[in-house]
């Protein structure tokens, strides 16, 4: 679990240290993937997938997940 947290922090840092967050939006998808697939936290994943989409991310699986009606 620690390795996933380390990866998440590294991705967050890479986005925050850049001048243009738009250029590094793919890191938000990567963070979302870690939360969804590895940490089994779909709500937290959705938060990062929304950021990914906000900056132009168009992965169909992500878009479908974010736009799916809540159960």
Q: What does this protein look like?
A:
- With 71 residues, the protein is mainly α.
- 69% of the residues lie in helices and 0% in strands.
- The chain contains four helices and no strands.
- It has helices spanning 2-16, 26-38, 42-54, 60-67.
- Helix 1 packs antiparallel against helix 2 (26-38).
- It is flat.
What labels describe this entry?
71 residues, 69% helix
Short structural summary:
By secondary structure, the protein is mainly α. The chain is built from 4 helices and no strands. It has helices spanning 2-16, 26-38, 42-54, 60-67.
Percentage of residues assigned to helices: 55-70%
> Which range does the strand content fall in?
under 5%
Q: What is the H/E string?
A: HHHH
The counted number of beta strands is: 0
Secondary-structure map:
Layout: H1 2-16, H2 26-38, H3 42-54, H4 60-67
């Amino acid at each position: 679990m620690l390795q996933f947290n380390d990866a998440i922090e590294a991705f967050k840092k890479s986005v925050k240290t850049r001048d243009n967050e738009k250029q590094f939006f793919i890191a938000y998808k990567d963070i979302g993937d870690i939360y969804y697939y590895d940490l089994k936290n779909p709500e937290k994943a959705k938060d990062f997938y929304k950021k990914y989409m906000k900056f132009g991310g168009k992965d169909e699986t992500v878009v479908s997940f974010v736009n799916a009606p809540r159960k």
